[in-house]
């Protein structure tokens, strides 16, 4: 056997074994020890090996040196695919431009030519005991029908308000100014049976601004105590969401505090062009199903400078949502920042174009998570988590396609939500879990094109952190610790982007599901 054939055989062996350094040694041996310039097949094999290992810079350099100026076949196609995926994920962004169609004045200093509609003027008492629901409804009807009006909840008072729907459409340039405290009835038995899942529900609005230094307090402690997650002898049932904005567009929410929600704190549903700034969410870490900000069936949503501590996901993004950006998010306690859950009861779930840029998570049960049930269909595609710092977090990076939040075991199924083109970049911190990164993907619908760049996760106790992969394919560049070589294994190589592209025609389920307690 001559030298080129020996080099080819050595390269092939190293490629199939995933032996990167050994493959590079054999390749260089031909050039520098035997003076034989590698041929097309040698370049193809080593570039394939480097590409699978995520060493894209080295692979690209060799690609340019190859005879004919390029590589044909699997190696070149794979490398080009990787660069295309990288370019798409790195350029993925959502416009943060302010959506408000008018300037909002500061009500401590000026009215700005607006009509002030004070709930006190409609009979609200504000002692935290008297029922002010009817006064709020009357004030809303007036503010909603009056151009350039301000629905004012004044500071220094506490208003007891029962479940209420504040419906639009409204006259132009409405501001909801909450400077006081709005509290919910504490007793679940006293809740309006016609609105079992809602407390303060705003719908069919356009160009409305919610702002102020006030508090929305769900008085949720008795709801939590009656939860089947707190006590398995209790029946499982739904509970109200503190603040809901649905079927609305061009909405701004700024500065409010939402706390002690009965279940979810703040839901954005079936809406578009929503901007949320400086909102705080606060619930005990053991309060069940109290998601901080839950986005469902919505597009073009930006969350910025929000501090969230709760008993469930700090942020959850579910079916029918796209173009979602989170920036400068503090999370803890809570279950992390999650996409999902999706695919429950064999439903279709679609989420795309999600960016988390700059976050700090402390002592959460998950970090950045994608969760889907077995069964179902649809996809999660085009997601970038970057510039995230974690402190004492369990499961810092996790894809869980075997999610089961049910009293009974969930059966493994052949269908699943397809997950692809997910980037984790500049992620660092400490993990409680031995498995700092976990990619538990569907056996029959594997995850594809997972990209890791500059990841450094250490065990808090100093022991070695690990990465777990099941049916997951991707590549790394830059420093990645712990190693994620399992993403590059050859048995996962045939997973192609086309599998996801073929799902493009799938329509999301029309039902925008919010938490149903299990």
Which value, in Å, is the CA radius of gyration? 27 Å
CATH topology of the largest domain: Pectate Lyase C-like
The low-confidence parts are 1-13, 490-506, 510-518
Mean pLDDT across every amino acid position: 86
Distance between the termini: 67 Å
Biggest sheet record = 19 strands, parallel
Shape: elongated
Give the count of structural domains: 3
Number of helices: 8
Find the structural class using helix and strand composition.
alpha/beta
Mind telling me the CATH superfamily name of the largest domain?
Single-stranded right-handed beta-helix, Pectin lyase-like
Beta content comes to 35-45%
Written description of the protein model:
The protein is α/β, with parallel strands linked by helices and 518 residues long. The chain folds into 3 domains: 3-91; 110-312, Single-stranded right-handed beta-helix, Pectin lyase-like (Pectate Lyase C-like, 3 Solenoid), CATH 2.160.20; 336-518, no CATH class. It has 8 helices and 30 strands. It has a 19-stranded parallel β-sheet that branches. Helix 1 (3-17) runs antiparallel to helix 2 (20-33) and helix 4 (56-65) packs across helix 5 (74-91). The chain is elongated and about 95 Å long. The model is unreliable at 1-13, 490-506 and 510-518 (pLDDT under 50).
Essential attributes:
single chain, 518 residues, alpha/beta, Pectate Lyase C-like, 3 domains, 19-stranded parallel β-sheet, 11-stranded parallel β-sheet, 8 helices, 18% helix, 37% strand, elongated, endo-polygalacturonase
